Amino acid sequence: STSYLRHRALVEYLQKATGLAIRQVFPDTFEAHRRMVERGEIDISFSNPMTYVLLAQSGARAFAGIVEPSGRATFRGQIIARADNSAIRNEQDCRGKRWIAVDPYSAGGYLFVLGHFRDKGLTESDFAEIAFAPGPGGKQEKAVLGVYAGRYDIASIREGTLGIVAGKVDLSALKVVATTREYPSWVYAARKGLDPDIVRRIAAAMFALSENDPEHERILAAAGMRGIIPTTDRDYDPCRELFTKLRLDPSKVGLE
User: Fold this and answer.
1) In angstroms, how far is the first alpha carbon of the chain from the final one?
2) Contact status, residue 76 vs residue 238, Cβ threshold 8 Å
3) Closest by alpha carbon to 228, among 62, 109, 33, 107?
4) For the chain, N or C: smaller number of CB within 10 Å?
């Protein structure tokens, strides 16, 4: 329901602007999303950049990326803890702690932070527990709530999540322990074999959106972005480099 509400106005705009019949599809997980694109059940994918690298293995190609509310076309992961947890002040203090992440394929909510921990000399075995948020939706929020309620010591979330949950939790009870480097933001990709004319029509409509137009600004704000800009496959090479750092082969991830 959250995804539907966030993107409904954008889908309606694209239908009018392109004359194409477009409907939203709701995979339960990043892995289900990937497999649906491979089978041709999703034509235009909207995914985090790490999932895109996996989609590209089956021929999907990036054509557009979002501008974040921050105004950047990049985003970061964050490590959070309870503000009253004086034992956790930096990354090294996370050793031996209970960690809740968003999903094994979440970019800001897991993989960016895992790469950050690797840079600080920590590996998965250095944590007492690594859990992933349950359920098909609201996983970023559930990771935050896991720490807020004291069930976990730290959570990894994408930058911007705390602002989304501001009405659900007292943000003064939480603190940001560390923030990762920046990576390319969420991406629109066309599945292998999709008519190039369809991609061009959708891309042109996306790039025409301007936050200076009140109606467009409403569409973009609902979707949590400030704009959509052209992008190409090579823009996501930093994510491929992260896969290498994590010793994960993108061609084999998620095939079990």
Assistant:
1) 29
2) no
3) 62
4) C
Provide long-range contacts, Cβ within 8 A and 24+ apart, for 231-234.
Answer: 231/62, 231/63, 231/64, 231/65, 231/73, 231/184, 231/187, 232/62, 232/63, 233/56, 233/61, 233/62
Q: Which two tokens stand for residue 86?
A: 């004086």
121 and 113 Cβ atoms separated by less than 8 Å? no
Round to whole Å and give the CA distance between 151 and 153: 7
- Give the strand pairing for 98-101 and 154-158: parallel
Per-residue pLDDT of the chain (256 residues; tens, 9 = 90+): 878 889 999 999 999 999 999 999 988 887 889 899 999 999 999 999 999 999 999 999 999 999 999 999 999 999 999 999 999 999 999 999 999 999 888 899 999 999 999 999 999 999 999 999 987 667 899 999 999 999 999 999 999 899 888 888 999 999 999 999 999 999 999 999 999 999 999 999 999 999 999 999 999 999 999 999 999 999 999 999 999 999 876 655 543 2
Alpha-carbon span 214 to 36, nearest angstrom: 35
**Residue in the structure block whose two tokens are 């503000």:** 83
**What angle, 0 to 180 degrees and rounded to 10, lies between the N-to-C axes of helices 49-56 and 30-38?**
30
Residue 26: CB atoms within 10 A of its CB come to 11
The C-alpha atoms of residue 92 and residue 219 are separated, in whole angstroms, by 42
* 90 closest CA partner among 181, 152, 177: 177
151 closest CA partner among 95, 198, 207, 85: 85
